[in-house]
Amino acid sequence: MRNFNTTPMGRSALWLALCTALVPAAHAAEPAANPGPAFAWESSEPLIKPPADAANLFGVKDPSVVFHDNRYHVFFTTAGTGGWGMAHTSFADWKDAPQAPVFMLDKSPIGPGYRAAPQVFYFAPQKLWYLIYQGGDPMYSTTRDLADPRSWTAPKPFYAAPPDVVKDDKGQAAWLDFWIICDDRKCHLFFTNDNGSFFRAETAIERFPQGFSTPVLAMKTERREDLFEASNTYKIAGTGQYLTLIEAMGPTGRYFRAWLADRLDGDWRPIPGSPMNLFAGAENLKFKGRVWSEGVSHGEMIRAGVDQTLAIDPCKPLRFLYQGLDMTPGKKYEYIELPYRLGLITAVGRNPVSDLCKR
């Protein structure tokens, strides 16, 4: 999610800039023989919306989800008249999601103020749940009771000050959408900068959440819209490979690209089989019922477990909880007013991830 707490741009100017970025830049045409998308998806209707009695909220965004004690727990950004915040909801089955109560996390010790783009996981070495989010800089809170959203601790930063490498030419920190995944020895912090760069930092698993290194560049694209924001990275269970998804922008809206690597500090290679290594977007998405979203934006895979390894199971149909833009035709919106909703897409048929299943 764009870090609106630090950007000097006005909301209208920013929205215009984002729309302009959707116009494809001049570049070599794809060869006519290119195959179609390697992934195919089917989307639900919107499952999580602003509560009916919350007239001050315009949209819900940036979901993170775990399945624990037979319930889904979803954390997400809220956009409203008071700015950006975070919320939690929980339910036993996706059919129950539209009626599930929503708890605003500013009522917990996380408190009010700019909070956005959460990620949740269980850090097994400490027997603690972690909620990672942006509050300008990367922040975290912890709890021992995921079922009690009031129990999260007050925000703490990962860095005492933003590293120079993430500052723009005006000296302002330009980093967002923070994501943590751990292997056997290290925890890795990934993030993007809305400008074609994907960064990684690390710390020893024994030192987490302290001791993160100076971030280094993990990937870079020439065009900012080809590697934009909302990165999320997973271990593919039963394999020695990792999957990274990063949101990009195209003429048909937001979409996700996919890369594979043999280790978290290794080189990322485009997943084969699709132009622009497409993972999910308008070109490979069908809807159950009305077409309610113009693309696939900031979201998270449904994981096989809850811990810091962030494993996904290639032997089960892939599912991805995403933010979709359900706009009224002809209506004009300020950026914060955009009617984002959360829906679930499910992979249909074989794909490059399911092909890694060894069972």
Write the layout of secondary structure elements.
Blueprint: H1 11-21, E1 41-43, E2 57-68, E3 71-80, E4 83-91, E5 102-104, E6 116-123, E7 128-135, E8 137-143, E9 156-157, E10 176-182, E11 186-192, E12 197-204, E13 216-220, E14 229-236, E15 242-250, E16 253-261, E17 269-270, E18 278-280, E19 285-287, E20 297-301, E21 311-312, E22 319-325, E23 340-347
Q: Which descriptors apply to this entry?
A:
359 residues; mainly beta; 6-stranded mixed beta sheet; 5-stranded mixed beta sheet; 23 strands; globular
In short:
This protein has 359 residues and is mainly beta. Helix content is 3%, strand content 40%. β3 and β4 form a beta hairpin.
Describe this structure in words.
The chain is mainly beta and 359 residues long. 3% of the residues lie in helices and 40% in strands. The protein has 1 helix and 23 strands. Strands 14, 15, 16, 17, 18 and 21 form a 6-stranded mixed sheet that branches. The chain has a 5-stranded mixed sheet with strand order 19-1-23-22-20, with no helix packed on it. The chain has a 4-stranded antiparallel sheet with strand order 2-3-4-5, with no helix packed on it. A hairpin with a 2-residue loop joins strand 2 and strand 3 (71-80). The longest helix has 11 residues, at 11-21. It is globular, with a radius of gyration of 19 Å. It starts with 10 loop residues before the first helix and ends in a 12-residue tail after the last strand. The relative contact order is 0.18. Residues 6-32 have low confidence and may be disordered.
